[in-house]
UniProtKB/TrEMBL annotation, chains A, B:
HTH tetR-type domain segment(s): 14-74
SUPFAM superfamilies, alphabetized: Homeodomain-like
Signal peptide stretch: none
Transmembrane segments: 158-181
PROSITE patterns to which the protein is assigned, alphabetical: HTH_TETR_2 (PS50977)
Keywords: DNA-binding, Membrane, Transcription, Transcription regulation, Transmembrane, Transmembrane helix
UniProt protein name: HTH tetR-type domain-containing protein
UniProt superkingdom: Bacteria
InterPro entries in the record: Homeodomain-like_sf, HTH-type_TetR-like_transc_reg, HTH_TetR, MftR_C
DNA-binding region in chain numbering: 37-56
Amino acid sequence: MNQSDVSKAGRPRGSSRAMLQEAAAELFLEQTYASTTIEQITRRAGVSRNTFFNYFPAKSDLLWVEVDSWLLALPSALKAALAGGTAQATQPTDAIRHALLALAGGIPAGDVPWALTQTELMGTTLELQASALSRFTTHGAVLTRAVERAAGRQEGDLLAQAFAVAALAASCAAALAWAGAGVARGSLVPFLDAALSPVCDGFRPLLPTR
Amino acid sequence: MNQSDVSKAGRPRGSSRAMLQEAAAELFLEQTYASTTIEQITRRAGVSRNTFFNYFPAKSDLLWVEVDSWLLALPSALKAALAGGTAQATQPTDAIRHALLALAGGIPAGDVPWALTQTELMGTTLELQASALSRFTTHGAVLTRAVERAAGRQEGDLLAQAFAVAALAASCAAALAWAGAGVARGSLVPFLDAALSPVCDGFRPLLPTR
DNA sequence: TGCAATTATTGGGCTCAGCCCAAAAACTAG
DNA sequence: CTAGTTTTTGGGCTGAGCCCAATAATTGCA
């Protein structure tokens, strides 16, 4: 209600968020994510350990800051695609696909999230996919509800849930392949399209427009 | 090489594994998963705290013991389905589907894993799906490699990965809906079939037999 | 019977993430 | 200058997960 924008009173933030991210990025390169402690990060950033938790709920959030910033636009992208916009968005699965592709189009090829670069630390690639999925949870709920609304399904409908989560999983696989493609990876869009289209194809006849 | 079956020498295990599971189940009912400590579990089971880690790598594994036991049969089920068996297993996606359905057929309708019953503790249902996926990682790698082999794809192929992880995600959604269906839930098979079939349909033309 | 070798259990101690709380710091509005 | 607000900080605490060395219990062999 009120915490949006600048609040007028109180002690100003030390603008520490960016500093924490920078310090963490440096340390993740020097050492690894696993062997970097929160205390090291905050010491390098010049703040107290407790201050860290004023900016990030957990250490692992540092791995996903880029992804989180991407997905900030997810609700609006979904809304635009489902509202029909000007294009073909009549079918729910296609609307979801277009929304996700539009999001991917806005992602600079340069900044790959830490979570995708430090693969070796997090075990198998599939384990990382799962970890990514777990991160996508919050935004994924938005996706599920969008599917339910667009297809006229009631809340908790199995087909809607299955499609939403399968689409998310395929997207994660695409992002991982994209990140693993090296410096000349180009845009995420073709990767995402290749992984997402089959899922949409499969669910399209079962999830007609309401 | 040698740790399989009973090892002949050494101090015998206190048969504590089942006791630990029982003690944990009791405490999860009395209190919740979150507010139950490992020390409480081991005290009730009559063993030392350190002994816990001789049987489970982490506390969260207690939530997934049932699932893990189910998925023990995954490799053999995959092998059977891919070897053609007697049935229709010519197509990779169908082979995977049949293997998973066969697995689901062997699951008693009674024992729902803790991870699925303690939903409220773990946040949203989607978050739980993701958590489940993260558990499936180990077995999911098996699935991915099976797809790669059956479809003649090279390791790390995007389509194979996307299909494997999408199928896993849909399976999780199915299991969750099944667990949420209450006492009269019946077999997992129809749930799994409904969620899995569209995924297979979508990928079938793109993943032909090698 | 006794002596290795082997394996499980145990106690002790340690690091680190995450949380809580209360005091102090820095700012704004009156 | 004062009261209210927000952030920072220090202190301390719990609990998971790990490591290590000591001990208990068993088998195989001599």
